[in-house]
Amino acid sequence: MNINRTIDHTVLKPTTTLEDVKKLCMECVEYDFAAACVPPLYVKIAQQFLGNTNTKIATVIGFPFGYSAIEAKVAELILAIVDGADELDVVINISAIKNNDWEYLEKEIANIMYIVREKKKVIKVIIESGILLEEEIVKCCQLYSKYGVDFVKTSTGYAERGATIEAVKLMRANLPANIQIKASGGIRTFAFAKELIEAGATRIGASASVNIVKESKEGTAQ
């Protein structure tokens, strides 16, 4: 399994430095990862580090809690695209889910999708599955299917629970085949990444990406 091309190599800690981003991008070039996922501040510089490689530039919007205003997310989205982002990982408004305010969530995604489609970018909506009820996950799948997002993503990595096999299976069962799943949050081994892929994920978000690839090649996954 060439797992490297399923991985978004990620650095999103609040203390992320320029050196962290440079190291991440150099590892993306060395291991041919699918994307380098960096804070919005570093999108422009990531472009310089990556140059003309296969690795896409991803960044986050409304990260990590998702409850910023729609207008704020739209502004973030536009700036990220102007700076050169290819893929946008957007945290939806988790508070709205807990308020059962699906009308708000529909308005949010409608505004976001208009820009994403106009600019021909890839969008991954982060639903934070680890803190949602099963019925909430299903409703999210139904809503974001309606708007034709590219990926539904499990987690930010900042909630108390990240990706799980159960959540990925539930999402796969409730999404059309053309919408992919990105699993992220707490993925540190090849064994777990492989399980998530077998459950239906086609993209993995991880900071332990190099370790995952090394384990896949050495056959030493625990």
From TrEMBL:
Its EC number is 4.1.2.4. Pathway: Carbohydrate degradation; 2-deoxy-D-ribose 1-phosphate degradation; D-glyceraldehyde 3-phosphate and acetaldehyde from 2-deoxy-alpha-D-ribose 1-phosphate: step 2/2. Transmembrane segments: none annotated. The keyword Lyase applies. One of its GO terms (biological process) is deoxyribonucleotide catabolic process. Gene3D superfamilies: Aldolase class I. It is an enzyme of class 4 (lyase). GO terms for cellular component: cytoplasm. Pfam families: DeoC. Keywords: Cytoplasm, Lyase, Schiff base. GO terms for molecular function: deoxyribose-phosphate aldolase activity. InterPro entries: Aldolase_TIM, DeoC, DeoC/FbaB/LacD_aldolase, DeoC_typeI. It catalyses: 2-deoxy-D-ribose 5-phosphate = D-glyceraldehyde 3-phosphate + acetaldehyde. It comes from the Bacteria. It is found in: Cytoplasm. The active site is at D89, K153, K182. Catalyzes a reversible aldol reaction between acetaldehyde and D-glyceraldehyde 3-phosphate to generate 2-deoxy-D-ribose 5-phosphate. Belongs to the DeoC/FbaB aldolase family. DeoC type 1 subfamily. This is Deoxyribose-phosphate aldolase.
